[in-house]
Amino acid sequence: MCAEGFFPALTAGGRKAAIDANKKMIDETAELGAPLLVLVCGAQPGLALTESRQQIQEGIAAILPHAEACGIQLGIEPLHPMYADSRSAINTLEQANDLAEEMHSDFLGVVYDVYHLWWDPRLRSETARCASGGNLLAFHVCDWKTPTEDLLLDRGLMGEGCIDLHQIRGWVEDGGYKGFIEVEIFSKKYWAMDQYVFLDLIMAAYRSHV
Amino acid sequence: MCAEGFFPALTAGGRKAAIDANKKMIDETAELGAPLLVLVCGAQPGLALTESRQQIQEGIAAILPHAEACGIQLGIEPLHPMYADSRSAINTLEQANDLAEEMHSDFLGVVYDVYHLWWDPRLRSETARCASGGNLLAFHVCDWKTPTEDLLLDRGLMGEGCIDLHQIRGWVEDGGYKGFIEVEIFSKKYWAMDQYVFLDLIMAAYRSHV
């Protein structure tokens, strides 16, 4: 289930509303029988990133007992630094690993999307740390196109861009990850086409490039 | 003077052409009496980032003696991770600091643009390292708008976005930087307006927010 989060807010009331919304989303995730709630952690243009990061940690700490009680895993998804203004102040795998390790729980881990992480010079070592530590809960693939024409909705099919998916999948699986590999392609272009054709393209791209 | 660089290429001929172009640009920089050539280091969608980074280091090593002979400083500019596909494989201040320190020269340093670096969780410590080590050669300001509508040409005036310029300027100057603070705003919107009006806006924004 994706996505709640968005913990940072300019007021205490806003932070409490986010915590309540996340608890409700945990309930809904449990009701659906889904195992995992993906957290897009949030950021506020008017808040310093250090403050947003603190509020994210406090927000997760506030909902984690409810997730544990419901048997739902929470996955911290680091987002690409181009989303640091308003979508997430957690922008590297290292930050997500730090949070998951510090707040250690069987019901807290990391959601790993190549689109957000591929550029990171520390990716190999942080992937090993995440996967071998048991914190890698989900693995998402797509590709980064050149040129990218929209900050949110111009992801590419696997193989259409510059991400070395074989290499990254190798790192993830070398660390012991055995879960699903999920395809996540936010794209105005692909969403506009016949979705059965799109599905065929996804399957072909997956077989060749993942 | 800005910008050459673009060292990574798919062929040896391409890499040699980049080195020749950079040497010519060093000559032109000297002819103009400018002290500094800014290096946008380059990236190639078909090359792994680790390989691009190696080629960047080799390219800089190949032109550095010419820069030293001409009395021109070279400034490695780390670019935002959203440009890692085709503009630069150097995406954090830490990477630029590593390169500048490893290839130590009075004629090699780092160009620091808040637009590229503001999101980095290591920014404070890497800024101190860069400035106090004498490697901070230029300091550029603008702002990151919410929403940002174009990956290249939608920068904001200082104060229009989420970057804490007072804080970053403090870190830069605490490290001993005494050079110019340059305003660099790539923007379709601002480039379309009367440039004298734009200059007035820049001066007002600088006084209030830098």
Mean pLDDT of chain A: 97
Distance between the termini of chain A: 23 Å
Tally of contiguous helical segments of chain A: 8
Can you tell me the residue ranges of chain A where pLDDT is under 50 for at least 5 consecutive residues? Answer: none
**Main β sheet profile of chain A:** 6 strands, parallel
SSE topology:
The structure is a homodimer of 210-residue chains.
Chain A: E1 2-5, H1 12-32, E2 36-40, H2 49-70, E3 73-76, H3 93-102, E4 108-113, H4 114-117, H5 123-132, E5 136-141, H6 165-174, E6 181-183, H7 188-191, H8 195-209
Helix pairs in contact in A: 1-2, 5-6
Provide structural commentary.
Two copies of one chain form a homodimer. Chain A is α/β, with parallel strands linked by helices and 210 residues long. Chain A contains eight helices and six strands, in the order βαβαβαβααβαβαα. In chain A, strands 1-2-3-4-5-6 form a six-stranded parallel beta sheet. In chain A, strand 1, helix 1 and strand 2 form a beta-alpha-beta unit. The model of chain A has no long low-confidence stretch (mean pLDDT 97).
